[in-house]
Target: Glucanase
Amino acid sequence: MRWTVLAATLLLLAGGVPAGAATTGFYVNPDSAPAVWVRNNPGDSRAGAIQSAIASKPIARWFGDDANIGGTVGSYVGAAASHNLVPVLVAYNLPERDVCGGESSGGASSMSAYETWISSFAAGIGAKPAVVIIEPDGLADISCMTSSSDISDRLAMLAFAARMFQEKAPNASAYLDAGNAGWVAAGTMAGRLKSAGVSSIRGFALNVSNFYTTSSSISYADSVNAALGYAAKFVIDTSRNGNGSDGEWCNPAGRKLGTPPQTGGGADMLLWIKTPGVSDGQCGVAPTVPAGQFSPDLAVRLINGT
Model:
């Protein structure tokens, strides 16, 4: 594989990821929502803490509907490669996405539109190294779908996505989202992962935009793998799991930043997939902040654990 030495050391896609590898191997997005807020509000008393605790950390960038998705992804991955760093990307454009929660509804207009989009997404990465999380909630959300044909189409779209990353982004570590430790029974999730083609990519992602502890997520992953029948690799979103879960998913109080991104830690990687400070929806302690919008108040709550 023609990677930089750093990227090859960081990911070691053929044989696993070394525990304790330098966190500086991940790309820090200079235009993440918290970074932009800090840049635009230098006089705010909260800016220093948000910059130090959140904006300076490598956080995944989410990509949705974009007519030029291949070019957008290519530019972002290229920027990371120019610094010999590995970007973390989230593909989030399934039709009827967030069917359970409804706060982040939207997505591609049809199955064919999605397949065009995800194919271009993977092609935009090309031969460069990257970490990709495929469709948060995409498999767990099936629990809220009632049409068997819609479920079949969703599984087919996710399997197509996995195949595109395998074929068009061979140096990317791609992970199908598999919900969290408190959502879908491990055996059920394993069946869905099989149907969605998990065996053709690196593995699966857990706890995206949720709060379950790393240890509970590892236990759930072990149960999923037991049902799969082999040890698929997995990553865990630790962006907001420092105090664990209280059972609520939408801007609950008392949550805290978790372990900063690193390789290892009991998983392939611990990542900040959800951007800390970005609202889950108009709910919880941010009843007026729409889903996807950054709130300095939410950010400070996560820093302080309040």
